[in-house]
Amino acid sequence: MNTTKPDTIKTSTVVLIIFATIIITVIALDISGAIKHSENKTDAPVAGYKVIFIANMDDNSYRLSHKSSDQTAICNDSYLFVTSDNDPAMQGLLVDYKNRGIRCN
Known about the structure:
By secondary structure, the protein is an alpha+beta fold. The chain has one helix at 11-32; strands spanning 71-76, 79-84, 91-93.
């Protein structure tokens, strides 16, 4: 009787092939220029913000986390800046979707 063992591949080999394929794909996309890298590092967005509209100050229909965001807003030259509580050198001007500065009193 001729018993043949079916072809099997180890799980570790499959995982290694998947990671190698991902790495090779990223390198190929980077070399071909499909991945865009920003040259101007000063215009990179640091954080995203949204506004919660509150129609009535007594209304508690919105959810607000009780954890601190580790960021503080300050008013400087009538514009709103956001600073990091962890890194004092990290400071940014808060702008709208058209890069217009948000004014404060």
